[in-house]
Amino acid sequence: MAPLLEIRSLCYRSLLRDVAFHVEKGEHLLIVGQNGAGKSTLLRCLDRIADGWTGEILFGGVSIRTLSGKRYAQKTAYVRQGEEIVPDLTVRNLVLTGRYPHRGFFAPISRRDEEIAERALRLTETVPLAERKFASLSGGERQRVRLAAAVAQEAELLLLDEPTVYLDYRRQDETHRLLDTIRHETGAAIVEVTHNLNRAVLSADSVLALKGGKVLYHGDPAGMLNREMLREIFETELDVITLPNREKPIVAPGKSSL
Questions:
Q1: More confident residue, 168 or 77
Q2: SS3 string of 187-245?
């Protein structure tokens, strides 16, 4: 059976070079690397926002070049870091925008659309925010609502560009817990860009490390946890530490990085 997503020899300008990996159904893949490594560019290629790439991107064994925009939007949802323009919508109406790929252009919102949006609100614990204006929400609340819209889209693959950026530790933890819930309740695969290495260690099924647009590592997070590999990826000293109260090690700055 073909993977949910398969990338073969993907190149984009000078930003991505011969990138290859795959994502299985329900898998959580984290993409890590330095700033400028090509992480967000890769997500934009996967969502077809960036055009002009070469190579192959296959969804369920089918080239995404052959899929209409509407059809691909039914399969893939992209959640950006933040929105430059904040829509003047209530939370409920914003979540309902996730239903657009499943409706005709002028089709009214159906009872089924409303039921799916309501389920997305419940799953993301945003029901209490439903009648508030999106612009009035905090950063953490906005991110949960964006995720609710992605859930309402009923996509098989969620592409997330640093979903916890600018959030404090409590909101980061809430977002991480929410992502785990979404994945287990919907069965969707998640491809997530992050700068949080410990996030990769603690919760991801696999990790993809980029440097200069090339893949340096793809596999189990534990396989990346050695000082030599981390130094090659991030060009700084990082220590791998095992704490008494944790089963898995964590990554921390080395002495020369402090």
A1: 77
A2: CCEEEEECCCHHHHHHHCCEEEEEECCEEEEEECHHHHCCHHHHHHHHCCCEEEECCCC
